[in-house]
Amino acid sequence: MVQKELSTKNGAILCGDAMQYLRKLPSDSVDLIFTSPPFDLVKEKSYGNFKGDAYQAWISEFGVEFYRVLKPSGSLVMDLGSGWTPKHPTKNLYEYRLLLNFCDNLGFHLAQDFFWWNPSKLPTPAQWVTIERIRVKEAVNKIWWFSKTTRPKADNKKVLQRYSKSMKTLIESGVYNGGDRPSGHNISTKFATNNGGAIPPNLIAIANTSSSDYYSKRCKEENIKVHPARMPHLLAEFFIRFLSDEGDIVLDPFAGSCVTGKVAEDLSRRWTCVELNQEFVDGAKFRFEREATRNIGQQEYKILAPNFQLFVD
Q1: CB 227 within 8 A of CB 257
Q2: Does residue 311 surpass a pLDDT of 70?
Q3: Higher-pLDDT residue of 21, 192
């Protein structure tokens, strides 16, 4: 059973089985699925997670429905954390198996791969990083941007970075070293044109350090468990701005604390968040209280390096 728990101007939080909800959706009806599903990890998490072949079978079943409900112009963006093999300092390749399965067997295209670098991540796994000292800390999540067709809706003008100081100087002076480079690239006269900002790379640096925000505060006040794997608002904002327009339909079937819904609400997208755990749903409601601060446009955030900053209008 899937039950509506909260309605807003633009969307709703549902509590229940996301697969049940997906199977009731019409085909070709969703513009963007943005989500971070449970990962295939050695240590079982409180929100539940499968392992190995069982994980691949489980996520593949969702993949079939994702493909069906997406519009031809739509996108599926999945944030996936890295895993390790049990008792050994070698990597679990589950996210790559998922990638190949979705493209080879389910019909998706890999529009682009992104990498979210969390500079504040703790040195894990501790056994290999801080005890035996034979590995470096894990600090990057893979983000697969899948599409149903080869040309999904996307506009990088919506996620431009602030120009660096040197680029601003170059644009203002109009003096630069154009022509051929040893790499074979040709720098044209259009290079010095002011396009309103720089095109961001596919390596996104956003520290995930929020532990005293309004959501966390209200959860503690009401003795509700804070979701252990909260996504930063700015990550959701990047992809929702990039891959959808106002009025588009955004879906998060593994909503957790409903960051996707909050960002979609503030960006005037129609949205649905589905979460199986009732306690996480109860906490997610705090994001939509009148006293909760608006997250969009409140801050700039860094992409790759401190002098590169994404900005919003």
Answers
A1: yes
A2: no
A3: 21
**Has 113 been annotated as catalytic?**
no
**Structural domain boundaries in the chain:** 3-161+201-310, 164-197
Q: Indicate if 37 belongs to the active site.
A: yes
Whether 3 has a pLDDT exceeding 60, the answer reads: yes
pLDDT band at 24 (very low <50, low <70, confident <90, very high): very high
**Which one of 36, 73, 75, 244 is the catalytic residue?**
36
Q: Please count the CA atoms within 13 angstroms of the CA of 93 that sit on its side-chain side.
A: 4
Each residue's pLDDT tens digit, 45-91: 554 567 899 999 999 999 999 999 999 999 999 999 998 998 999 99
State both tokens at 223. Answer: 């003795």
E strands in the chain: 3-7, 11-15, 30-35, 70-80, 83-84, 91-92, 109-117, 140-147, 161-162, 179-180, 186-187, 203-205, 249-252, 270-275, 301-303, 305-310
236: enclosing H helix or E strand? helix 233-243
Q: How far apart are CA 93 and CA 110, in angstroms?
A: 17
pLDDT digits (tens, 9 = 90+) for 252-276: 999 999 999 999 999 999 999 999 9
User: Looking at the domain 3-161+201-310, which fold is it?
Assistant: Rossmann fold (3.40.50)
d(CA 227, CA 266): 21
252 in catalytic set: no
H/E run at residue 23? helix 18-24
pTM: 0.87
Distance CA 310, CA 297 (A): 11
Q: Which of 31, 38, 40, 79 is catalytic?
A: 79
Among residues 94, 13, 5, the alpha carbon closest in space to that of 274 is found at: 13
Q: What letter represents residue 82's amino acid? A: S
